[in-house]
Amino acid sequence: MAVSASLVGLALLAGACGAAGTPELEVNAAQAAVPLAGSSQIVLAITNRGDGDDALVAVDTDAAVGIELHETRIADDRATMVSLEEVPLPAGETVRFRPGGLHLMMIAPDDEVVLGATFELTLRFDRSEPITTTSEVRDLLDLAEDALDDPDA
Amino acid sequence: MSSPRSDRSTQRPPVRTLALLLVAGLLAVACGPASATAIAAQGLEPGPDGWRGIPLERERTVPEATLLDTQGDAVALHEAFTGTPTLLFFGYTSCPDICPIHLAAIASAMGTAGVSFDDLDVVFVSVDPDRDTPERIDDYLANFSRRIVGLHGGLAVVEDALAQLDLPGPVVEGADPRGEGDLIGHPAQVIGFDADGQALRTWPFGARRSDWIADLPRIVEEGS
Question: Which DSSP category does B48 fall into?
C-alpha cells in the first residue's frame, strides 16, 4: 500500500523534477579572495551527480564571523546584490559560485585569512550530509580572472 | 540544522525509498543535466576598430558636478578631468564583488601596459555617502593604487552626476550582513572619457585584465 501511495504521490510530483531521487554532491577546490574592506568572496562549484535535487542552505567556517549566500545581479546597467536563503542544487547540474554571479561572501574574515593561507569551511545542505572542504586564499584579481577564464572550472 | 524536508527523507521507510528510486529512474529523462548557472562575463570581444570597450549609444560628457576629494577639497569634475583622458567609476567601499574587481583589473593593467597615472586619471566616486568617509575611501583605494582619485559628495550631487551620464542612481538593496548599513545597487560599468571630456567607451563588468591591457594605451593615444 505504501508503495502505490508513493507512486501516486510521485506521479503528481513529476513536475517538480528531481524531488524524488537521491542527490550526490561533489564540491571542487574552494578559493577565497584576500579580504578587502571587511569581506571576501569564495569561489567554488558544487556538482549534483545524483538524481535528486538538493539545496545549499548554509556555510560555516571558524575563519570568519559568518558566510552568506549572495548573488550579484546585473540588469539595466545596474549591479545589485541579493542575499539568498538557500541555493538550489538540481539533479544533474553544476552550480558555480564566482564573481559576478552567485557567491559565498565571508563576513569579517579573521586575521589568518591572508594570501596563501588555507582554512576549512563546511557546507550544509537540505538533504545531503554536510561536506567540509579546504579553501586557499588567493589574490582577488587572480581568483576572478581564473574563475572567468574557465567557465567549466 | 535539519529542516522538515530533511527529517522526512531520513525517516522514510525502506519500501518507500525503493519506490522513490524506481520513479526517479523513470524521471531521469526529464531530469537530464541542464546548462550551468549562466554568467555573462567571459571577456569582451574586440570590435572592428580593435577596442574592447563598448561604444556609447549617444554622446556623453564628464558630468558638471562638484564633489569632494579625500582631503576635503572641492573637485569640479568637468574641469578637473578634462585635459587628460579619464576613467570614471561609481561604486562603494563595502561593495564585495563588482567594484574591487574593476579597480584591481585597471590598476594591474596600468602597470602591465605601461600606462602612467600621469597620462590617465582613474576616478572612483562613492555612491554611499553615509558610510564612505574620506579615510575609508583612501584605505580602500590603497588596496589597488594610491593614484586612484577617490571622490564623495551628497547623494543628490552623485545622483545628478549619474543622471547626466544616463546611468542608474544608487538603490538600497538590503541590509549588509556585516551590520554596517545597506547593500547598494550601483552602475556596473566604467566609462572612459577623452581629454576633451567626451565619453569614448564603456566597460561592463566582465571586462578582463587583458581587455584593459589592450584598451588603456588606446585611451591615452586616441583620447589625449
Answer: T
Cross-chain Cβ contact B37/A105 below 8 Å: no
Contacts with A129 (C-beta within 8 Å, 6 or more apart), sequence order? none
Calpha distance A8→A92 (Å, rounded): 24
Strands B86-91 and B121-126: parallel
Kindly list the residues from chain B whose CB atom is less than 8 angstroms away from the CB atom of residue A75: none
Q: Provide, as residue numbers in chain A, all residues whose Cβ is less than 8 Å from the Cβ of B3.
A: 57, 126
Percent of chain B with pLDDT over 70: 76
Q: Do A51 and B37 touch (CB under 8 A)?
A: no
**Given an 8 Å threshold on Cβ–Cβ distance, is B5 in contact with A51?**
no
- By C-alpha distance, the chain A residue nearest B205 is A100
Q: Which residues in chain A are contacts of B128 at CB distance < 8 A? A: none
| Residue burial A91-130, b: 16+ Cβ < 10 Å; e: rest | bbbbbbbbbbbbbbbbbbbeeebeeebebebebbbbbbee
Average pLDDT over residues B133-146: 95
At A17, the pLDDT band (50, 70, 90 cuts) reads low
Chain B hits for A21, CB-CB cut-off 8 Å, are 20-21, 24, 27-28, 31
CA distance, residue B117 to nearest chain A CA (Å):
20
Concatenate the DSSP letters of all residues of A25-36 into one string: EEE--EEEEPPB
In CATH, what class is B66-223?
alpha beta
Q: How many CB atoms lie within 10 A of CB B89?
A: 21
- Domains, chain A, in order of start with CATH, read 21-149 (2.60.40.1890)
ipTM of this predicted complex?
0.79
